[in-house]
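User: Can you write out an input/output pair for a complex, sequences first and structure second?

Assistant: Here is one pair. Inputs:
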Amino acid sequence: MSESKEGQKGEVVQVTLDRRGFVKGSFTLVGGMLLAIEASKLVGPGLLFAADAPGKLKPEEMMKYLYAVREGCTGCRSCEYACSMYHNNGLVRPSVSAVHVKKYKNVIDIPMICWHCEDAPCVKACPTTPQAIVKDKETNIIKYIDDKTCLGAKCNKCIEACPSGFLRRHPDTGWPIFCDLCGGDPQCVKACQAQATDTAPVLSTAKKGFGVNLAYRNVNVKDAAEGLMQTLYYPNTDGGRR
Amino acid sequence: MATPKGGYFGKMLEVDLSSGKISTRAMDEQIYKDYVGGYGLGAHLLYKELPPKTDPLSPQNILLILPGPFNGTSCPSTRLNMCFKSPHTGIFAHTEVGGNAGNEFKWTGWDGVIVKGKAAKPTYLVIHNDKVELRDASKLWGKDTYETDEAIKAELKDDEFRTIVIGPAGENKVTYACIIVDRFRAAGRSGGGAVMGSKNLKAVAIKGTKAVPVANVEAYNKLAAEAKDMCSNVEAWQGVKRWGTAGLMEFANFVAGSLVAKNYQTSWYPDVEYLGAEEANRTFWKRHTACPNCPMHCMKLGVLRTGGKYDGLIAEGPEYETGVMMGTNLGLVEFEGAMKGIEECDAMGLCTISTGNVIGYAMELVQRGLLKPADLDGVKLEFGNAEAAIAMVRKIARKEGKAGALLSLGIKRMADKLGGDASKYAIHTKGQEMAAHDPRGFKPRGVSYAMGQQGGDHHEGNTPDGQAVFAWCCSAVTCTLATATPWAKRRPGIVCEMLNSLCGWNMKDEDFWTMGKRFITAARVFNIREAGISRKDDVLPVRMTTEPLPEGPKQGAVFTEEDTKKMQDDYYAYYGWDANGIPTPETLKSLKLDYAMEVTKKA
């Protein structure tokens, strides 16, 4: 079940969907996780989860990477709640949350996050001059400039370009919703960590990445779901009834 | 008419399926201040709007789909409530379900739906924010709940819709058919599925993108965070996080002596170790699942890896109630069969508790020679026969053959039909099958079963004031497991504080108990009007009061007449009802339920 697909700049990106391939992918992720944990040891937990002043962090305190270990997600959507409360005046509204949890056949929950890709296909696809989204070298985020620069609902380029199908439109305005990593202190991660008192948290951050986002960004919802079906529900890989 | 400042949108959707008319009903804030939502509001609206003695399966019955004020806000562990007159018991029914439908509903910008009438052909209702439409469901009719959910998402070309669906059991108006959300979650008790089926309403599909207004955002979010912390840090609940409620099966057998086995013949069933949480953990569970913003993740999803006939079966469970009723109550010893039974109930849209009870009851009637194989289409319905039980679930859902027709009646009507000794073994209160805890072994459960306003349900509360708390949970539509104990034991006032900051009200802590009494009394006066419920109905089945438990940790225990009398007296005294279980005029006045004065006078 492996397929090739035309990536950006014409290079061929291999998307592996078979079981072994998925397991391999998991190891890559574990590598990234270890790195994230190492990074947290270096700076100490106090700095990692500084609760007092989100958005006012010094550049060296900023978290530049966001990770998700999808196998453990319980589908509680606290990340959506936290994200929308932070960006929406304290009101819960998952439809405008940057992170979102997709359900697949009601047996898989997939937290969809922006991997803030190094080569940022969405930025390359943006047709405006100046561009409405740019890759910020200092903070590592894919930065949305403003609603004036973006063409909004008239244009669909970034949404089409996103290899993981993460980007969505704002339900009222039609502008795409980008993740800003909450200024280096992602609220979704805090919510996930607080929630997971007796399970491994799904979301985590780090200051340095190791190409994890490159390996993972090509996995869209359907591929991720089918991979997870193999990992979690073997021998029933179609999710149907027996 | 005042519009609420937060927590509510101040409008409900009114759908008349007979004419296809969809209209908006403006709601006054005062009705929310008095009844909050869910259970309380449902009891009030049914009393006011349902003509007395309506046939529950007639088009005149009203189905209320009611999220509460906390749904869709930062409050943890919210659910979805549905109220109607029960076709199973003929009295008030409230049924709650977890999953994503409740919050999604609130985000559509409606405080609830009032469904009336009967559609000419199978129909489903689509609510996408302000856009509401009725669509043809002829192609969905006959499909199981899983297929229906998938088919609706495919037809609407949007997998973000959440659905409330019924299965074949609801279509065929089996009076204990349930309503399914998110494939495995059931609004189980009292036959909501049959009410939907009688209205030709196959499903409701919901998608909302709005935000619930909050009067004082900062204060509310702070309180909600505190409330969530209280939910997750209850010592006794840590095991539930890891093992789900299935972990209580072993506990009920070896410690509490309240497990139900073989249609309540005993509470000692050591083979529970092949059916409970440990076995599920070995051969079935794969991951935890949680309702929105809930730190409990009490549900477990899994895939059967036993290599047997149902290898690869994906399902959610077992929970305590489903595991007991479809496992030990049927005398099973293999996990695989019990789990398939639970999954089949979910797919067919049957209440697992009632179905397990009914099949267990039929098995005992076979054991005692009161039912012959010829009465059951030749199915060998004996304790321990998993295949027969699974076959029977399918027969019940489709009312197939003699067996399906008989068992789909429910225990009370079966006993009435069979006559003779059959009623001795019939376990129900007010026509509702009891839920997996033997009140002889654990007497507080007797209060929940006997005194609860919808009959033998486990979500009614184990003490008089506990019932007020549970009525609050079902009115504010939060989870009775995750929130009732953590909040009520430590700080019941937190509910009032949260409502104050959410809605801009100024409730006091003592209002909590007054309103709890109001919810229960509102349901009670409805029951008095519809079925003349009184003290004579607030009793446990005869087996509980006459047959001592034969073995187990509580060997010899029985629910005595004194127990019953004390339970009733305490309860009536707490709620201000007279010795016959009828609310006194003073009580009605103090609870602002004066409108029910006429009905209670006649009783």
